[in-house]
Amino acid sequence: MSENTAPRAHAWIEINTHNPDATRDYYTSHFGWGTHGMDMGPEMGTYTMFTHNESPFGGIVHLQGEMAQGMPAKWMVYFNTPDVDACAARCEELGGKVLHPPFDIPTIGRTAYLADPHGNHFYAFKSASEGSGDEPMPSGPESWFEIATTDVESTRNFYNSLFGWGNEKWPMGEMGDYHMFTYGGKAFAGIDNFGTGMDGWNVVFDSDDVDAAAADCKARGGSVQMEPHDIPDVGRSAVLADPHGTKYELMKSFQKG
């Protein structure tokens, strides 16, 4: 099992896709992840989860029928909140939208599908287990999150007000400051206003070799959206897309050696 981490802002990640089998095969081969199936009943069928060091950290959503209407084929993030219903109501107060009202996932928790005032989709989530959702969870391969926006201030203010997150910033020289969200005093996500071509919330996965992973992505039918490059004092990064065009980022921290 993975080692437990400190309480964190996010609870889960998911990839929305029109081709779940091919998506599963790509990511398990590309990253070496495992999978585990969860029976969701006769109507929903089996929910496929990705595992890392035997611990589930994310899942696959098959976009079909009504579900495919208005849902982007991309990686999605579930953020922890102590009260999903209050979070959904607050989202609307702040100018966002409730795309799907709060609902229960039996034995798992309560969630709502929301959008910020700029139309970026995300989930609010409260675990069905005892507590606030702040319990330590096994660490997964997702090491960072970014939200792409042209309006840093309003984006920062919305999420700070909705989830109670804090902020830090990192000087990026001529590019200006890189603004970050913090949770429990620790930075976990950044605001991308640098015109990288990303949209909405995005997931950054840990990599031991970004260049090799980029080459592997292309070999498996994906594409390199931004070539491997160094971010001074941070690490080596790349933006990739799987064979269906879903984008994700890689990062190898310089601290890893």
Descriptive overview:
There is one protein chain. This protein is α+β, with helices and mostly antiparallel strands and 257 residues long. It folds into 2 domains: 10-127, Roll (2,3-Dihydroxybiphenyl 1,2-Dioxygenase, domain 1); 142-256, Roll (2,3-Dihydroxybiphenyl 1,2-Dioxygenase, domain 1). Helices cover 17% and strands 45% of the residues. The protein has 4 helices and 16 strands. Strands 2-3-4-1-5-8-7-6 form an 8-stranded mixed β-sheet, covered by helices on one side. The chain has an 8-stranded mixed β-sheet with strand order 10-11-12-9-13-16-15-14, with helices on one face. Strand 14 and strand 15 (235-241) form a beta hairpin. The two termini are 24 Å apart. The model is unreliable at 1-5 (pLDDT under 50).
Question: Key terms for this structure?
Answer:
257 residues; alpha+beta; 2,3-Dihydroxybiphenyl 1,2-Dioxygenase, domain 1; 2 domains; eight-stranded mixed sheet; 17% helix; disordered N terminus
